[in-house]
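quick one before i forget lol
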Amino acid sequence: MITPTRRAALAGLLATTLAPRLEAAKTPVTKASLHALLDRAAALPPRVGRALLDPVDPAALDESARLDLLTARAGLACDAALATIGAPGRSPYRVSARTGIWQRATDPAAIDAEREAVVADAKRGVMLPRAALDDTVAAIHARVAAPAVTAALQRLAGALAALREQAPPPGMLHLPHGPAWYALLLRRHGVAVSPVAADRLLAREEARLMTRAQALFAARGDRNGVLGDRYRRLWRDARYHYPDDVRGRAAAVDDMNGVLATIRATLRGIVPDVPSWPLDVAVRGMTASELAAGVQGFRQLPTPTASGAYVVDLRRIAARPRWTLPSVVAHELLPGHLLQMPLEASRPPHPLRLEYAVGFPEGWAIHAEEMAATAGWLGDDPLVALGHLHWLLFRVSRARADLAIHWRGTPIPEVRQRFEQLLGEPAYFIDFATDIGRILVEPGIRVAEATSWLSIRERMAQQPEGLIPFLRAGRRRDEDLHAAV
C-alpha cells in the first residue's frame, strides 16, 4: 500500500504528464496524412511524438481516424511519463521467456546489444523476478540457431543467470518507482481508473458472479466447500464428458456448431445492418496432423471472399465438459472475436492504436459471452450458465491477480491459492502456474482486458443499436468508450 504522500505525488505526475498540451492551433489533416504523421510520431521519442500530434484537429476526422489520433495521443503521453521514472513500453522487463530480440534475431550483435541493455537495466534495479528469470534462461538455452547466434544466446543466458541472487521478489511493487510505474502502465494499456479503483470495480464484479454461481450450485444441492471445490467436482463428473475418441470430438464440434447456428440466426434478425460475410464462420475440429503437432486452438478470420473458422483444441477432451463449450462459441466466433476482428480489419487501425488499446479485443469477446448468455442464445441449461460464469470468473480473477502481484505485492502461493478457491479448475488453454508466469512479465494486460469488458458493457447498454458501426470503428481505450468521439 502506498502512503497518502506518495499517492498525491503519483496523482500530480499523472496530471502533469497525461493532460493534453494544446500549444498550437488545430489544423485539419486527411486520413492518409494523419497516418503518415502517426508513423513519424511512433519513430520519435514519446514526448516529441506526442507534441507532434497536438495541432491536429480531431473534429475533421472520421470516427476511425479520430480514434487513431486520440489513442496515439493518450498512449504517447503515458510513454513520455514512463520515460521519466523507468522506461517506456508495454513491460518493464526487456526480455522474458516469450519476449525479446533474442527470440528471432539472426545477428549476434543484436543479441549482444540486448544483453548489454539487460545489464544496464539491472544496475538501475530493474530485473526479472527469480522464477521468470529461470524460465527465460531455460527458453534461451532451448533455442536452436547457427553457431555464432548460439554463442550470443549463451552470453545473454549467462548474464541473466548472474542476476539470480539479486533478483527482486515478484511484482512491480519491488522495482524502483514501482507503484507509479504500474499505475502508468495501466493507463498506457487503456485503463481509465487508478489501480485501487480498478481493484474495487473488479472485486464487486467478482462478488456478483460468485453469488450467481453459488445460487446455481445450491439449486443442484451442492453446498459443500468453497466455490472452487464445487466447480472441481462438477468438472470431473464423467456424465458431462464427451467420449475421448474421434466420435466424441466430432460430437463436441457438432454441438458447438449448433450453438453457433442459433446465435447467427438471432443476429441476422436483430442486427439488420450486419454484413453476411462475417457470419460465414464455423467450428472445425483439428486434423490428425494438427493434433500430433500440438497445435493450440486458432482462428481463421472470414473475409468478403472466404469463410472463417475457429479450430477448437479438443486434445484433452476430458478437460472440456459439455457445459463449458457454449460460452466458447460466443467468445471465439459470434458475436465475439470472429465478428469484431474482421470488421475492424476492414478499416485497419494504425499500429499505435493497436499498441495503446490493448485490452479491447479480449474485452469485446468477454462482453460477447455475456451478451449471448443474457439474451438466451446459449440456452437455459443451468450447467451451461455455470460454465459461462466460470469463464467470467476466470477473466476477473486473473485481472485481480495482476493487481495483487504488481500493486499489493501478494506472494505467489497466495495468488495461486485464490485461483484454486475461486475456480477449482483452470481455463483449458492455460493452467494456473503458466497464467501467473505470464502475469508476472506482462503487468497490467489482464486488468486492461477486464476493465475494457466492463466499459464495453456500459457503453453497449447506453447505445445497443449501434453494434456494427461500433465494431467497424475498431478498438478504443476505456475513456473513449464513453466519450463523444
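fyi Residues 382-408 form the longest helix (27 residues).
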